[in-house]
C-alpha cells in the first residue's frame, strides 16, 4: 500500500519546518521538504499525466514560496498549516482520490 501524497506533502512541509525551527538547521528542514517532494512527485508521475504531475510539483514548490510572505502577515505556524492544508487538498483531489 502506498502513502497518500496528500499526507506526504502535508507531513514533509510541517515536518521540515519543525526540524528547521527546532535544530536551527534550515538545510536539514529543506532536505525533509525535498524528500517529501521527490516521494510525492514519484507517486504523482505514477498516478497522473505528465501535465498534472508538473502542475502538482509547481503547486508544492509555489506553496513553499507563498508561505514566507504569508508568515509575515499571520505568523509562521499558521502559515505552514495553511499552505500544508491547501497543498494536501489539491494533491488529494488531483491524485489520491479514487475516481
Oligomerization state: single chain
What is the helix content?
A: over 70%
Which structural class do the helices and strands define?
mainly alpha
Poorly predicted runs: none
Structurally, the number of domains stands at 1
The value of Rg in angstroms is 13 Å
Keywords: Membrane, Transmembrane, Transmembrane helix
Transmembrane segments: 51-71, 77-95
Keywords, please?
single chain; 99 residues; mainly alpha; 88% helix; globular
Polypeptide structure, described:
By secondary structure, the protein is mostly helical. The chain has one domain (5-96). The chain has 4 helices and no strands. It has helices at 5-23, 26-47, 50-74, 76-96. Helix 1 (5-23) packs antiparallel against helix 2, helix 1 (5-23) packs antiparallel against helix 4 and helix 2 packs antiparallel against helix 3 (50-74). The longest helix has 25 residues, at 50-74. It is globular, with a radius of gyration of 13 Å. It starts with a helix and ends with a helix.
Secondary-structure topology with pairs:
Blueprint lengths: L4 H19 L2 H22 L2 H25 L1 H21 L3
Helix pairs in contact: 1-2, 1-4, 2-3, 3-4
In short:
With 99 residues, the protein is an all-alpha fold. Helices cover 88% and strands 0% of the residues. It is globular, with a radius of gyration of 13 Å.
Amino acid at each position: 500500500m502506498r502513502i497518500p501524497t496528500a499526507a506526504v506533502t502535508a507531513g514533509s512541509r510541517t515536518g521540515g519546518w519543525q526540524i528547521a525551527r527546532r535544530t536551527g538547521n534550515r538545510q536539514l528542514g529543506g532536505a525533509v521538504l525535498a524528500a517529501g517532494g521527490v516521494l510525492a512527485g514519484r507517486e504523482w508521475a505514477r498516478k497522473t499525466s505528465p501535465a498534472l504531475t508538473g502542475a502538482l510539483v509547481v503547486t508544492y514548490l509555489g506553496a513553499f514560496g507563498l508561505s514566507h510572505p504569508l508568515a509575515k502577515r499571520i505568523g509562521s505556524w499558521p502559515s505552514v498549516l495553511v499552505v500544508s492544508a491547501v497543498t494536501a487538498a489539491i494533491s488529494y483531489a488531483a491524485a489520491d482520490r479514487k475516481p
